[in-house]
Amino acid sequence: MLKLLSATRKHPFLPELDNPQAVFMDLSSSQLVFNVPAGNECERRYKPLATPLISEFDIYNQRGYEFTHEGFSTACLFQRDLDFFSTPSGIKSIGTISVSVAVDQVNCLPNGMTCLNPNHFEQVMLRLLHRLGPGNPGFWKKIAPVNWKVFCRNESTFVMCEMRNDLDAILRPTPYDAMQYTSLVMTALDEQHLLRIMFHNTGYVPDAFAAKVRGQISRSIKLNLNEDVKRKLSASKSKWPNAKISEYREPENWAYPKWRREFNDIGEPKIVVAKLGSPAPELKV
């Protein structure tokens, strides 16, 4: 309670930030572990959720994937909303960071390419960002990748980046528009599968606070690939010894499609594209 009373809009209070819950995921014998605050999963706001959360998912079972769009099939494995508070708002939160975990199966991968090759994986990530941007009309225009960072854990190479709103495309942008963005942490799980951890900000989310929460959760991520994937990874390094991922990237220069909502009475799809935007980037061996 004292931390809540001393909280401000610039330095909000997030329950259990310093005492997070451990999450264990068995992904076809690859082990993912990370720590996340209990958030709205608490029975009461200040009661910790100490029991670890354990789950498993077969990344090779097609029936586990819920969404298929533009060359990717996606399975959402975890989602938690982290509400945070400041003194002036009383018991009502001023913003939320939604943490989610997904596995993407890459259906558009040409023969000879593998997500275990860092260069190929970078191309796949850009293709995925395009799918979440101009490949998904009907939402605000996005700029990505922003703040591209690369880090390594055990055998895995991770990329962290952001998808930000294109403020130039908003008629009257407000400070809130700049705060609503998604951060992504991505790495390869196998030749045709990738892991995606996302942090989506809504409400009043100061950048420094969002970075603190995202950084704390990201630093806790541990991924131990199964022995079969480790063998494939070793073979990939032998085949492409000089393959690297870019340490820095500018945002993509996307042209967004022109679109409108459907006319229900004539049976049109929900989104009607009148003029095509930038095509999905080609994957090259």
Describe the structure.
- The chain is an alpha+beta fold and 285 residues long.
- It has one domain (62-275).
- 18% of the residues lie in helices and 35% in strands.
- The chain contains 5 helices and 13 strands.
- It has a 7-stranded antiparallel beta sheet with strand order 4-5-6-10-9-8-7, with helices on both faces. The protein has a 4-stranded mixed beta sheet with strand order 3-1-2-11. Strands 12-13 form a two-stranded antiparallel ribbon.
- The radius of gyration is 20 Å and the shape is globular.
Keywords for this entry:
single chain, 7-stranded antiparallel beta sheet, 285 residues, 18% helix, alpha+beta, 5 helices
In short:
With 285 residues, the chain is of the alpha+beta class.
* Strand line-up in the sheet with most strands: 4-5-6-10-9-8-7
Count of distinct strands: 13
Percent of residues in helical segments?
10-25%
Structural class: alpha+beta
Main sheet, how many strands, which sense, barrel?
A: 7 strands, antiparallel
- Individual helix count: 5
Low-confidence stretches: 41-47
Compute the separation of the termini in Å: 56 Å
Average pLDDT works out at: 88
